[in-house]
Amino acid sequence: MNRCRARVWALLVASLTTAITPLAPSAQTLTRADSSLVGRVLLAEDRRDSIDLAFAEAAAHPDARVRAIAARGLGRIRDPKLVARTALPTVPPAPLWVEPAWRLRFRALAGLRDDCTALRLALMDSAWAVRLRAADLARSSCASDDVLVQTFVRWIDRRPSETSSRRRGEVSWHAAAHGLVALARLRPDAARAALPDLLRHPQPELRRYATRAAALLEDTTALRAMVEDIDDNVAETAIDALAARTGHADDARYVAALRRDGAQVVRAAAVALQGTTLTAAAPAARQTFERLVAREDASARDARVALLAVLGRPATDDRPPVERVALPRAAVRLALGDTVVLRVTLASTSGGGRFDVRLRGDVAPMMAARLLALAEAGFYDGLTWHRVEPDFVIQGGSPGANEYVGWRETLRDELGTVSHRRGTVGMSTRGHDTGDAQWFVNLRDNARLDADYTVWAEVITGIDVVDGILEGDRIRSIRRVR
User: Phi, psi at residue 398, to the nearest 5°?
Assistant: First the structure.
């Protein structure tokens, strides 16, 4: 086995001088056998099998593309973060997108959180992202500013009767949600008066923000009630806040929450129970762990590990589902430079619009091919953009609208030469090789993400639609443009 590994690496080193040339189309036409070889290399990399003879065969191949794919695959196996990635073939840069003017105003607010006049002006900005940012930054130092306070009260009182839809450029539940949390910091009494109605609101996102306001108001009674909310994301928020306030006094509530389906709320309950002396906690945690194992959902790992901690067991005792190693249908063609574009269409209830992304199969062929298959199967239809940070990223594609709920099979990292520039699309993870099929789109240059997150696509049209997405906006469909 060691001689085989040495042979592979010897052939790799010998081929690097030619492999580092740009990946221009080769003069040689690849045969079906050549494509099969590329597929074997991709599978070997996905298995992290550095001694697979496909690498040696591909490293000696006359086509530069095949040699480069083999060199990159072995490099990523040897160094998961591929520190030496700059020695491999470079790829064309992603499109350069100009930032919207409002983002500069958004960014400038960070240093003005105690400048009540600046915040007051920002609440009248033409861009709702800037207005909501001003609300998020307002704090008790501006408690005496009646204009700020009355603006937040007006946002709450004038919330639309139908909060499940919005027009493009406008908001629905968002203003009331952010306004209530701001009011809890500035005028607690006014926030307490508004809180009960919003805790009972049919819009779950609004109830989640109301739960955050209840935490700021130290309303233990409200938090206990929201632990039992029908929405798992609301219950998760309530558990986190209640545990921080009452410690283990409400452990019985967390034990009851372990019976819920959402991995996010189970994880929150298990974290709250760690160190408990409640005798019912251990059997409940054990039963829930076995239930999650039987579900065979790789994205529930955080919940399973938290349950093991309740039982005093290490994370290494986790029993994840058996990994399915298969070659996605489009992986070889993508690796060899096939151009594939996906069109993301937003629901009309979220303002409508669409944007196109080009898959970067030249960098991440296995990930791009798997996400292409999910999109064509309708996996993303009806899901939301649950995380929106207007000066960082938008993230979505979770069946539970939460970072702890994703596709049931993990996707391995394929770190490459493409930096996380504005408009590139990355893969959400919670550690190395834990891709959960959730997308995130970089709204600004985020080079600090390069070492840990795979870029597998890039926006080529509709960046203005991306910039206009708000939390909770829904995806109507994602389909291949043919």
Answer: -100, 130
What angle is formed at CA 397 by the lines to CA 232 and CA 468, rounded to 5 degrees? Answer: 105
pLDDT at 323: 87
| Helices 301-310/263-273 angle, 10° precision | 20
Which of 353, 351, 349, 330 minimizes the C-alpha distance to 459?
353
Using DSSP's 3-state secondary structure scheme, residue 411 falls into: strand
C-alpha 187/C-alpha 171 separation (Å) is 24
- Pull the structure tokens for residue 139: 């704090």
Q: Is 464 exposed, middle or buried (0-12, 13-18, 19+ CB in 10 A)?
A: exposed
Alpha helices, DSSP H only, in 29-127?
A: 32-47, 53-59, 64-78, 101-108, 116-122
Write out the H or E segment, with its range, that includes residue 190. Answer: helix 188-199
Contact 283, 307 (CB under 8 A): no
Q: What pLDDT was estimated at residue 84? A: 58
CB 187 within 8 A of CB 149: yes
Task: Supply the DSSP string of 361-398, one letter for each residue.
Answer: TTT-HHHHHHHHHHHHTTTTTT-B--EE-TTSEEEE-B
Condensed to tens digits (0 to 9), the pLDDT of residues 433-460 reads: 999 999 999 999 999 999 899 999 999 9
Q: Cβ distance 334 to 42 under 8 Å?
A: no
| HSE, side-chain direction, 13 A CA sphere, residue 61 | 29
Q: What is the spatial distance between Cα 267 and Cα 265, in angstroms, rounded to a whole number?
A: 5
Residues constituting the chain: 482
pLDDT tens, 331-358?
A: 999 999 999 999 999 999 999 999 999 9
Backbone angles phi, psi at 460, to 5 degrees: -115, -20
d(CA 481, CA 34): 27
Q: Could you read off the pLDDT of 185-194 as tens digits, one per residue?
A: 999 999 999 9
